[in-house]
Q: What sequence folds into this?
């Protein structure tokens, strides 16, 4: 038998086969059904980690998700997941686990020197020590703290797993599958309600899986569990989710569950997600989260081999593992006695039961006597011995004075302790419910429900098997009735045994040791001792919220589920205030640590965000074009030919457009159809420009402001008919323009008979720009006259493109003769390929967004968001001409009347020409009036656009400059690291100022 | 509620291979269709329905159908009208003629969206990997239609059978929607 601490028989493990695993490289064996913790214990391994601050040897403390010490890394596919709780890691064949926070090894750890130096690290150490000198913070303190901080090693590679997501709705969600959770699920399910039952453990049953001294309906509790689960599984209205933690309770009964789908498998199918996030909207929630046992706060209560009593019982009864061969049970309550009895029944030597109480219940004492177990009443553990494993405990006798007298030393290789029970109110607290103090049981229990939830069983402060079942049935029935109005009668199971115990203690226990030299741990994971809590109080902390942050108690991954009550009691004593006046910290999401992958879900790689492609996309790929991301769109950026670099390609594209013709995909521009009798009135109110007199068949440039008067969008708008306009917006602005219009329609002008419809994706748009544009499209356009007289600049007609109905705009964003053809999207590819073939014949080129930017800058056409930044008015941009002077109102009109918008010295859009035509300014560079302004001098503006202009054979730039319009012809400077660059202020139109090329 | 398909207007695109073909769920690209966005006030609904060939539903999230027509409720004053591809002109002319002089907006959006048909016993499950709507038949009976989100893309969902849904997205979003549906269905093949 390679597992010296395994029992002969019993437990829920599969003894028919052995699983091999490694811990820190050492090969060990366990069974299916084991957790890593139970398998390690079966192999006699208690030392599994080093504590965070003092690097003290630590062992497995609990058997549940509250485990503070046994944090391990698990390797899979060459990378490790750190900080998994060994008590939650299911054993599989080939599992590779490593301990953490030790160097060079778990057995010999140099960090342990911190333990000896601990007088130097009191609570608030960092706050006190690293304050001066200030300059040390960046270079000395922070790097040191960073190197020492953190537990475990973060994974190095991209996550090789996938993560699922599922939205679900149910009538009743039951969190927890112990006696009350199962009863609640069954009672709710029998009414026909849609029920989801989840439990963080691999098996349903909770405490019932380790209960063998009670019966339900005369059966072993585990058999009863199997029957109930089978009944639930057979019902269509029930979803059973083992290995699923309800980790977050949010508003409107929205519960987040983390399902571990493949973590327990040795060789999972790669198509399965590692974990799945369930986002559940539950009409009613039953919180059956149970209770967890409290550690006792006595000196050296953290040695490996010291466990919670119920954990010891769980390892024995559920996993068939003895926590030791000579076990001391220290307790202040009845339940731990059963652990002692069970161990004794398995042949383990129970060296003593040390009960804090002067007179433990007679019934227990007599059972102990029958098993020959030594009972020490009024007895407290005052210390333990042993370095990597407990080897003896010091006992103390409680005296009537309240003092403790030394009571000798007792040999043991394991110590089970129980300070009583704490209801798990985390989910209740997350639901914004406030707990109330129940003096009788010495516990905070759920108070009034804030959301549609109810707690049941131990989570509700009710102990004892029958009480839990009864409360569970009632909760399930009540929840189903509240959710669906339906009820059903079911037989309630009867129990025998499993009575609620009495007793319990809070806070630090008395001892006869030198208080300044011993460490009695309150928060194991964060290495907070009773002394630290008292020190925090002495230093002025009065609220538990301050004490928590000063000492870090309750800030570990269990959020203080193990430590809070003891810390509160210690603080309460030190403050000489009732415990309830010290306050209680709030439990927050997530209940247990949750992977980032679960939250990221499918949002990674190609699916991080929708990637929107235009109909020319495949053609661009084929021609070797490069793409630029514009919002969610992929837009062709430039088309390098014959090894051209970007500069050469863009220069060629620009020249070709000016000299012959270019083809550009404008499908991404936002398009909105504005239709209805009040269409012109609506646009009149939205845009700065006048629309009512625009004749059908004509277009106008539209400028959109926000209420404050600043430019937010622009685009060409064509009037198709008296009651119909085709509005275009910028690519990035399309959704917000549409939303703004809809907002105004619904809230400000509901009386207008006009409706807006997004047509962005309805049409594919090809822009043909250049002197030969008309010749290029002529062969394919039927039904209209393309001549300048019939179709002048800024007009729109409906026509046919190779037999397909199209909207043909004569507009230009390049300053050349230009057309934009809109065809239904499915014909976009055909249109693009037709035109791409045709421009070849005319020596034309496809061009991308970069050339488009240069061409428009040569003409001084602004780009919203590049030449404007949300603080630019039409006047600032030199576009007062776009404002309808006689209009009654438009969005932003009143904003423009604000004094600061009419003030002198506003920053205005101008052109800049460098004195040296070869120098291209840096976009974003500052513009100053002085050649070499002193450091700290505010800039007078900045460069917004800067390009090399092939048409001008020199560089050009646009800039926003204070009082810029008045500075035309003046010299300003753009100070750069290499020296100040002199620039001349010009108008914004650099090319074809009179617009002769447009009107051909 | 009816177990019959809400409409057989929506048919798989004969020229296209299945996007996904599992035993428990399949995804097929739908054939092109006439889609019109119709906006009007209550007074005009009756006439519009007569002209279109089926009454426009006024109950939120519902649809009305005949063999060749479907009207989908999109909002209090918004409907999507579906008809066979070749009926675009006839439908548009019919409604415009009937509503002459009455305020309304009729816009051709036939090409704005692409549709896929998701069918099978795991169809609702698959949609729920990215849509937060309750697809139980009690909450979302056959014929129900809604605009919602699939992960980060706006979509329209129309239930045309107990295990059959039409998923529409704007054309440029369909790669994302169909791609993620296929990816999310991957685990159904796991053994």
A:
């Amino acid at each position: 038998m390679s597992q010296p601490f395994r029992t002969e028989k019993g437990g829920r493990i599969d003894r028919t086969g052995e699983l091999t695993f490694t811990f820190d490289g050492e090969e060990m064996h366990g069974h299916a059904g084991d957790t890593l913790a139970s398998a390690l214990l079966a192999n006699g391994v208690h030392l599994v980690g080093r504590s965070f601050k003092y690097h003290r040897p630590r062992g497995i403390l609990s058997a549940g998700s509250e485990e503070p010490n046994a944090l391990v890394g698990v390797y899979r596919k060459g990378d490790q997941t750190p900080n998994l709780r060994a008590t939650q890691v299911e054993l599989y064949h080939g599992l590779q686990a490593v301990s953490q926070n030790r160097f060079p090894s778990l057995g010999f750890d140099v960090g342990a020197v911190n333990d000896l130096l601990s007088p130097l690290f009191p609570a608030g150490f960092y706050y006190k020590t690293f304050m001066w000198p200030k300059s040390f913070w960046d270079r000395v303190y922070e790097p040191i703290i960073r190197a020492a901080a953190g537990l475990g090693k973060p994974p190095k590679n991209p996550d090789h797993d996938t993560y699922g997501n599922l939205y679900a709705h149910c009538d009743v969600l039951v969190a927890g599958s112990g006696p009350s959770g199962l009863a609640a699920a069954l009672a709710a399910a029998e009414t026909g309600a849609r029920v989801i039952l989840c439990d963080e453990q691999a098996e349903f049953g909770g405490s019932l899986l380790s209960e063998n001294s009670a019966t339900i309906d005369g059966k072993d509790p585990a058999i009863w569990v199997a029957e109930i689960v089978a009944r639930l599984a057979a019902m269509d209205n029930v979803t059973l989710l083992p290995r699923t933690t309800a980790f977050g309770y949010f508003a409107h009964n929205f519960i987040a569950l983390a399902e571990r789908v493949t973590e327990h498998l040795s060789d999972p199918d790669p198509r399965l997600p590692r974990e799945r996030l369930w986002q559940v909207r539950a009409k009613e929630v039953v919180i059956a989260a149970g209770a967890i046992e409290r550690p006792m706060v006595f000196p050296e209560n953290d040695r490996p081999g010291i466990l919670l009593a119920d954990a010891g019982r769980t390892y024995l009864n559920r996993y068939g593992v003895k926590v030791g061969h000579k076990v001391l049970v220290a307790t202040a309550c009845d339940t731990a006695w059963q652990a002692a009895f069970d161990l004794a029944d398995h042949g383990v030597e129970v060296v003593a039961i040390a009960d804090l109480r002067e007179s433990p219940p007679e019934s227990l004492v007599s059972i102990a006597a029958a098993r020959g177990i030594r009972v020490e009443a009024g007895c407290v553990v005052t210390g333990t011995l042993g370095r990597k494993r407990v080897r003896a405990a010091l006992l103390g006798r409680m005296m009537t004075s309240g003092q403790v007298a030394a009571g000798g030393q007792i040999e043991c290789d394991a110590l089970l302790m129980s300070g009583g029970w704490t209801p798990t109110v985390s989910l209740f607290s997350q639901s914004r419910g406030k707990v109330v103090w129940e003096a009788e049981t010495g516990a905070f229990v759920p108070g009034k429900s804030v959301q549609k939830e109810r707690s049941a069983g131990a989570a509700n402060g009710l102990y004892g098997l029958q009480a839990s079942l009864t409360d569970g049935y009632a909760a399930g029935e009540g929840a189903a009735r509240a959710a669906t109005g339906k009820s059903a009668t079911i037989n309630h199971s009867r129990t025998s045994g499993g009575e609620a115990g009495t007793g319990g203690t809070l806070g630090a226990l008395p001892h006869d040791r030198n208080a300044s030299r011993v460490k009695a741990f309150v928060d194991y994971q964060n290495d907070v001792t009773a002394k630290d809590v008292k020190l925090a109080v002495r230093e002025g902390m009065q609220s538990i919220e301050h004490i928590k942050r000063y000492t870090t108690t309750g800030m570990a991954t269990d959020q203080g589920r193990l430590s809070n009550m003891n810390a509160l009691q210690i603080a309460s004593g030190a403050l000489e205030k009732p415990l309830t006046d010290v306050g209680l910290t709030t439990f927050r999401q997530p209940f247990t640590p949750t992977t980032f992958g679960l939250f990221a879900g499918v949002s990674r790689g190609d699916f991080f965000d929708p990637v929107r492609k235009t109909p020319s996309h495949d053609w661009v790929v084929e021609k070797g074009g490069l793409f630029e991301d514009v919002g969610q769109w992929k837009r062709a950026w430039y088309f390098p030919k014959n090894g051209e670099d970007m500069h050469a390609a863009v220069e060629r594209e620009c020249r070709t457009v000016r000299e012959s013709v270019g083809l550009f995909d404008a499908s991404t521009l936002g398009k909105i159809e504005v239709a209805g009798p009040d269409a012109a009135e609506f646009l009149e109110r939205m845009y700065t420009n006048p629309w009512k007199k625009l004749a059908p068949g004509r277009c106008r440039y539209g400028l959109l402001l926000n209420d404050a008067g600043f430019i937010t969008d622009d685009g060409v708008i064509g009037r198709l008919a008296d009651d119909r306009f085709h509005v275009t917006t910028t690519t990035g602005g399309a959704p917000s323009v549409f939303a703004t219009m809809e907002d105004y329609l619904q809230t400000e002008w509901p009386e207008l008979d006009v409706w807006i419809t997004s047509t962005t994706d309805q049409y594919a748009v090809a822009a043909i720009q250049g002197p030969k544009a008309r010749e290029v499209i002529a062969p394919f356009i039927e039904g209209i006259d393309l001549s300048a007289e019939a179709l002048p600049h800024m007009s729109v007609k409906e026509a046919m493109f190779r037999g397909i109905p199209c909207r043909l705009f004569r507009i230009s964003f390049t300053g050349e003769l230009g057309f934009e053809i809109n065809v239904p999207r499915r014909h976009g590819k055909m249109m693009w390929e037709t035109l791409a073939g045709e421009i070849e014949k005319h020596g034309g080129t496809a061009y991308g967004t970069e050339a488009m930017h240069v061409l428009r800058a040569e003409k001084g056409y602004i780009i919203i968001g590049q030449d404007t930044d949300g603080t630019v008015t039409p006047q600032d941009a030199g576009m007062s001409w776009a404002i309808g002077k006689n209009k009654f109102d438009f969005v932003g009109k009143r904003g423009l009347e604000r004094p600061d918008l009419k003030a002198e010295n506003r920053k205005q859009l101008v052109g800049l020409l460098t004195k040296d035509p070869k120098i291209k300014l840096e976009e974003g560079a500052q513009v100053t009036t002085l050649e070499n302004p002193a450091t700290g001098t505010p800039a007078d503006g900045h460069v917004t656009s800067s390009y090399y202009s092939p048409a001008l054979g020199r560089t050009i730039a646009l800039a926003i400059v204070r009082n810029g319009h008045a500075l035309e012809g003046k010299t300003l400077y753009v100070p750069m690291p290499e020296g100040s660059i002199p620039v001349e202020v010009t108008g914004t139109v650099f090319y074809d100022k009179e617009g002769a090329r447009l009107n051909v | 509620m009816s177990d019959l398909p809400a409409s057989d207007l929506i048919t798989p695109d004969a020229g296209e291979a299945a996007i996904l073909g599992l035993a428990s769920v399949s995804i097929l690209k739908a054939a092109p269709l006439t889609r019109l966005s119709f906006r009007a006030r209550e007074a005009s609904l009756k006439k519009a329905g007569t002209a279109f060939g089926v009454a426009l539903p006024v109950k939120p999230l519902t649809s009305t159908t005949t063999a060749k027509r479907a009207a989908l409720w999109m909002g209090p004053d918004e409907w999507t009208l579906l008809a066979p591809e070749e009926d675009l002109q006839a439908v548009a002319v019919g409604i415009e003629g009937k509503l002459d002089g009455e305020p309304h907006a009729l816009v051709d959006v036939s090409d704005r969206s692409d549709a896929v048909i998701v069918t099978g016993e795991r169809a609702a499950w698959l949609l729920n990997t990215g849509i937060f709507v309750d697809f139980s038949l009690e909450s979302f009976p056959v014929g129900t239609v809604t605009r919602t989100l699939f992960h980060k893309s706006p979509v329209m969902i129309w239930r045309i059978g107990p295990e059959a849904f039409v998923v529409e997205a704007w054309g440029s979003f369909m790669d994302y929607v169909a791609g993620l549906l296929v990816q999310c269905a991957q685990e159904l093949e796991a053994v």
Summary: Chain A has a mean pLDDT of 95. The interface with chain B takes residues 164-169, 194, 269, 271-273, 279, 281, 602-603, 606-607, 609-614, 632-633, 673, 675-678, 753-755, 757-763, 824-826 of chain A (CB under 8 Å). Residues 69 and 525 of chain A are 6 Å apart (CA to CA).
